Amino acid sequence: MKQGTTMLEYLNFFNKIELLVVDVKIDEEDKASILLSSLPESYDHIITTMLYSKGTLVLEEFTSTLLSNEIRKKSNQVEQECSGLVVIGRKGRK
Predict the structure, then answer these.
(1) Given 30, 32, 52, 69, which is the most exposed site by the fewest CB atoms within 10 A?
(2) How is the chain split into domains, by residue range?
(3) What confidence category does residue 92 fall into, taking pLDDT thresholds of 50, 70 and 90?
(4) Is 65 exposed, middle or buried (0-12, 13-18, 19+ CB in 10 A)?
(5) Distance between CA atoms of 18 and 26, rounded to whole angstroms?
């Protein structure tokens, strides 16, 4: 996953690669493992949590968690940017 790529873009790319490998059947647990191992180090905490919280790797759960995490991070970023704004009022005219 390249820096600056959104998770949705990356997941779409990941799914397209799977379509290119037509003759090879990859089960869901292996797909989940491949997806997790392809993520950058910034996702290590999520990868560790997902790997050790479940007995079976479920691709759909991982993609949902990754997308939710990205939405949460963007929401936090917007909140931080907005908290730095200062509103200066002006007195009404008489």
Answers:
(1) 52
(2) 25-77
(3) low
(4) middle
(5) 9
